[in-house]
């Protein structure tokens, strides 16, 4: 029986994958026929970061992917095309970084919380980067400081950044060392510009914000892993407009809010939704100002949206 070679998927283009072998050479590989994905219902069977087993095609330099090594984790969101399916953004990562802005284009806190819930569900460390601080007005700075206070309280690190002024870049670099990090965010938030600074060999294309829609223009078409060195890797993902939760039960959502999780056991009822039930410890902490009202309102909005989705 022919021995299979292993490698890490570093780029996905839909039907073909670029795989980096252990000797650091890269090859093109594809799937043969249907592929079992360990019970996952996803639109893309293989994600950047996957470790795959493959064999060389007879008479060609290309490879056939035969199997995926069991993933230690992955980031997945609900597919915008097939609501019953998920879309894998990356796998086998050490941390996930959300790049977002307060303007051009503005990122809603609901989007941020959905991203964080997805990370918490796999206990993936999350880092929040508020980009384009060079464009901030005085009002933007007040909003950003309030945002940082809210998410620092929940246990998340928040970094202010700008590729034009250099703000925050050294702080981000310190967080990247010896890790595989997935980078996510809306189109136009400056992911590609930031990655070009962090990983100069990436050479990613950038584009201006659309003056008509005030939304970003897609410059990253496919997910791709860029390496700063042998132990530090960045997975760049295409910009996303919305972040639908996948594989997460609505009754578990509160468990993925760290500031709620620590007091859930104090609620009167074990199945408390933290909405209008008597003896709810979460509601009481919100009234006391211990849990920020903005986070609680996001939680309720997400809970209702997920109930409507079901």
What would you say this structure looks like, in words?
- With 310 residues, this protein is of the alpha/beta class.
- It has three domains: 5-68, Nucleic acid-binding proteins (OB fold (Dihydrolipoamide Acetyltransferase, E2P), Beta Barrel); 74-236, Rossmann fold, CATH 3.40.50.300; 250-309, Ribonucleotide Reductase Protein R1, domain 1 (Orthogonal Bundle), CATH 1.10.40.50.
- It contains seven helices and 13 strands.
- The protein has helices at residues 109-121, 138-153, 169-176, 191-198, 258-261, 281-287, 293-309; strands at residues 5-12, 16-21, 26-31, 51-56, 63-68, 74-78, 86-91, 95-100, 125-130, 157-160, 180-184, 224-229, 232-236.
- The strands form three sheets. Strands 10-9-8-11-13-12 form a six-stranded mixed beta sheet, with helices on both faces. A five-stranded mixed β-barrel has the order 1-2-3-5-4.
- Helix 1 crosses helix 7.
- The longest helix has 17 residues, at 293-309.
Question: Secondary-structure blueprint of this entry?
Answer:
Layout: E1 5-12, E2 16-21, E3 26-31, E4 51-56, E5 63-68, E6 74-78, E7 86-91, E8 95-100, H1 109-121, E9 125-130, H2 138-153, E10 157-160, H3 169-176, E11 180-184, H4 191-198, E12 224-229, E13 232-236, H5 258-261, H6 281-287, H7 293-309
Parallel strand pairs: 3-5, 8-9, 8-11, 9-10, 11-13
Antiparallel strand pairs: 1-2, 1-4, 2-3, 4-5, 6-7, 12-13
Helix pairs in contact: 1-7
């Amino acid at each position: 029986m022919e021995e299979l070679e292993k490698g890490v998927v570093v780029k996905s283009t839909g039907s073909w994958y670029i795989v980096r072998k252990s000797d650091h050479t890269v090859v093109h590989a594809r799937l043969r026929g249907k592929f079992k994905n360990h019970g996952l219902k996803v639109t893309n069977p293989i994600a950047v970061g996957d470790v795959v087993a493959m064999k060389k095609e007879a008479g060609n330099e290309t490879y056939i992917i035969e199997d995926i090594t069991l993933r230690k984790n992955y980031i997945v969101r609900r597919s915008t095309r097939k609501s019953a399916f998920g879309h894998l953004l990356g796998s086998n990562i050490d941390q996930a970084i959300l790049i977002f802005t307060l303007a051009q284009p503005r990122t809603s806190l609901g989007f941020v919380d959905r991203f964080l819930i997805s990370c918490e569900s796999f206990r993936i460390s999350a880092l929040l980067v508020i980009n384009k601080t060079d464009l901030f007005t005085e009002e933007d700075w007040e909003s950003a400081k309030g945002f940082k206070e809210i998410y620092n309280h929940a246990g998340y690190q928040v970094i202010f950044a700008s590729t034009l002024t250099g703000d925050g870049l050294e702080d981000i670099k310190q967080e990247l060392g010896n890790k595989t990090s997935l980078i996510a965010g809306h189109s136009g938030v400056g992911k590609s510009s930031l990655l070009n600074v962090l990983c100069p060999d990436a050479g990613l294309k950038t584009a201006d914000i659309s003056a008509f829609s005030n939304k970003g223009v897609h410059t990253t078409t496919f997910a791709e892993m860029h390496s700063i060195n042998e132990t530090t890797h960045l997975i760049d993902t295409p910009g996303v407009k919305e972040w639908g939760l996948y594989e997460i039960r609505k009754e578990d959502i509160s468990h993925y809010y760290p500031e709620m999780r620590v007091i859930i056991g104090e609620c009167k009822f074990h199945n408390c939704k933290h909405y209008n039930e008597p003896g709810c410890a979460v509601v009481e902490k919100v009234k006391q100002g211990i849990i920020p009202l903005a986070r609680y309102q996001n939680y309720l909005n997400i809970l209702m949206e997920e109930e409507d989705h079901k």
